């Protein structure tokens, strides 16, 4: 039974090919990113019993197509208010097309947006985009934080998202699969750099630096379909956390995400 006043979340899709996450409170329904077609996002919403016509806000993390390709379509078709910082708006203009002025909003990095019963913190990350920022959602003394698409986790980010109730954290690649894989060396260097992506080991290390007693769910996200496997990411993160005496499976759950299948809604 879901609490009447709960914040609910579904990771609708997460991978290196497309990302979107849904957050709802009693008064607001929000998407983070839309890195796929509008039809695909709607299908994912329907799979959890929700509809895009009820979404009032769409927060964009950065301009890369796996996060932004469906933004313009959703804004135009459903009249959704879109929030991003100015450099991101500028960088994704050619990707998303025209967004009606009344639905276009600036959400500056490092600021907090309050919309009714939901407070949203933005924070910058180290990624090779114009000005990548991610978000932590607060409602009814609960917090859900998203952290993907970053080469490393700064002290400032750790302080911002410390001890949230639930996380979506990047585990983009297995180091050995990436090194031995078919990507050109220049792309491998980009992924491994401080403005690239977190590996499975990096994701585990990051989690240990900010999760706390309140943390009950950890979703592993943004997995590369070329350089990782769901089972490998899960095993690596769980093993590292267990080695450091974290209560995997007792104090909190580690959960997988998928590029094509939405995770069920859960109350944070």
UniProtKB/TrEMBL annotation:
<dbReference type="InterPro" id="IPR058121">
    <property type="entry name" value="WalJ/YycJ"/>
</dbReference>
<dbReference type="InterPro" id="IPR036866">
    <property type="entry name" value="RibonucZ/Hydroxyglut_hydro"/>
</dbReference>
<dbReference type="Pfam" id="PF12706">
    <property type="entry name" value="Lactamase_B_2"/>
</dbReference>
<feature type="domain" description="Metallo-beta-lactamase">
    <location>
        <begin position="17"/>
        <end position="173"/>
    </location>
</feature>
<dbReference type="InterPro" id="IPR052533">
    <property type="entry name" value="WalJ/YycJ-like"/>
</dbReference>
<dbReference type="GO" id="GO:0016787">
    <property type="term" value="F:hydrolase activity"/>
</dbReference>
<keyword id="KW-0378">Hydrolase</keyword>
<protein>
    <submittedName>
        <fullName>Metallo-hydrolase</fullName>
    </submittedName>
</protein>
<dbReference type="InterPro" id="IPR001279">
    <property type="entry name" value="Metallo-B-lactamas"/>
</dbReference>
<keyword id="KW-0614">Plasmid</keyword>
């Amino acid at each position: 039974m879901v609490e009447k006043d709960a914040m609910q979340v579904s990771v609708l899709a997460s991978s290196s090919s497309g990302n979107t996450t849904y957050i709802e409170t009693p008064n607001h329904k929000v998407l983070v990113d839309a890195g796929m077609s509008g039809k695909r996002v709607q299908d994912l919403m329907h799979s959890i019993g929700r509809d895009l016509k009820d979404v009032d806000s769409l927060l964009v993390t950065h301009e890369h197509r796996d996060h932004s390709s469906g933004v313009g379509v959703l804004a135009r078709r459903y009249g959704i208010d879109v929030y991003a910082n100015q450099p991101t708006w500028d960088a994704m203009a050619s990707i998303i097309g025209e967004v009606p002025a009344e639905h276009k909003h600036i959400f500056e990095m490092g600021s907090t947006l309050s919309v009714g019963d939901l407070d949203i913190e933005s924070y910058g990350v180290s990624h090779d985009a114009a000005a990548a920022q991610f978000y932590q959602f607060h409602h009814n003394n609960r917090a859900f934080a998203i952290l993907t698409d970053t080469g490393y986790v700064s002290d400032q980010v750790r302080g911002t998202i410390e001890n949230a109730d639930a996380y979506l954290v990047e585990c983009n690649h297995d180091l050995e699969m990436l090194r031995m894989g078919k990507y050109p060396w220049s792309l491998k260097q980009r992924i491994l750099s401080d403005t690239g992506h977190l590996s499975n080991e990096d994701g585990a290390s990051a989690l240990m630096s900010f999760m706390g007693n309140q943390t009950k769910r950890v979703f592993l996200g943004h997995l590369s379909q070329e350089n990782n496997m769901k089972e490998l990411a899960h095993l690596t993160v769980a093993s590292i956390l267990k080695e450091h005496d974290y209560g995997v499976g007792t104090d909190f759950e580690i959960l997988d995400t998928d590029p094509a299948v939405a995770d069920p809604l859960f109350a944070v």
